[in-house]
Design goal:
With about 80 residues, the chain is an alpha+beta fold. The protein has one domain (about 5-65). The chain has helices at about 5-10, 10-15, 40-50, 50-60, 60-70, and strands spanning about 20-30, 35-40. The chain has a two-stranded antiparallel sheet.
């Protein structure tokens, strides 16, 4: 399931179908590190069209999820 849709409470399989998830790297979330997230097709397109800052502003619960999971042992980081 898409990390963003899961945090926002949306069903990505219902919206996008069973298509493959895209790995995206967010560079402006943390200083000196990148966050790797799995996104569905619609979230991937929205991230591309709006940019990272606006994408996180529009998906505030996802931004909070990234903030709370910034422990070094998390699988979100490269």
């Amino acid at each position: 399931m898409c990390d963003c849709c899961k945090a926002e409470g949306r069903n990505s399989q219902f919206i996008c179908g069973d298509g493959p998830l895209k790995m995206a790297h967010l560079y402006k979330v943390y200083m000196g590190r990148t966050a790797s997230v799995k996104l569905c097709r619609l979230c991937d397109i929205e991230l591309f069209k709006t940019g990272e800052s606006r994408f996180l502003q529009r998906n505030i619960k996802f931004a909070q999820y990234l903030y709370t999971s910034k422990a070094p042992s998390s699988s979100l980081f490269d």
